[in-house]
Amino acid sequence: LRSVFQVLWCHCLVMQFTTSPLPSTAHFTPVECCFEHAQKPIRHPQSFYETSKDCSKPAVVFLAASGDHICADPKKPWVKKAMKRLQTKK
Question: What residue range is the signal peptide (predicted)?
Fold first, then answer.
């Protein structure tokens, strides 16, 4: 009886680790979302991108000179100004 239990347990473990989520659910999972925004303007941002519309909290992610990715509120005036400045550099 014990060996039957062990075989069933191993089978369950194998099934758990070999099954993958359905492609349709994985397709709608955003890659990166922000949950907090920086309160102060970022000094010398190098570039920026916007997070996915699938994220619960809209954000602009700035790449700082230090290499850090910093989330910011796209509605803040300093964020809009920084985005505009970086767009004109292109």
Answer: 1-19
How confident is the model over 30-45, as a mean pLDDT?
Answer: 88
Percent of the chain with pLDDT over 90: 56
Alpha-carbon span 63 to 58, nearest angstrom:
17
> What residues contact residue 20 under an 8 Å CB cut-off, 6+ apart?
26
Report in angstroms the alpha-carbon separations of 1 from 10, 11, 72, 81.
Answer: 14, 15, 59, 71
Query: What are the structural domains of the chain?
Result: 2-89 (2.40.50.40)
Residue 71: which residues within 8 A CB-CB, separation 6 or more?
A: 34, 35, 36, 37, 38, 51, 59, 60, 61
Quote the CA–CA distance of 59 and 39 in Å, as a whole number: 13
User: Would strands 60-63 and 69-72 be described as parallel, antiparallel, or unpaired?
Assistant: antiparallel
